[in-house]
Request: fold
Amino acid sequence: MTDRIAVWLAVVIAAAIAADLALNDGAALFFLAQKFLDLIEWVVFWR
Reply:
């Protein structure tokens, strides 16, 4: 991955987070955080 791609990817992710916070009060981020924690618990179970 080049630096240019990494910068654009970071900008897109930051814009998505900002849009979620502005338009959706962070509901999507909260949902994704919950699902990520569920995934971590599932992976730990199979360890």
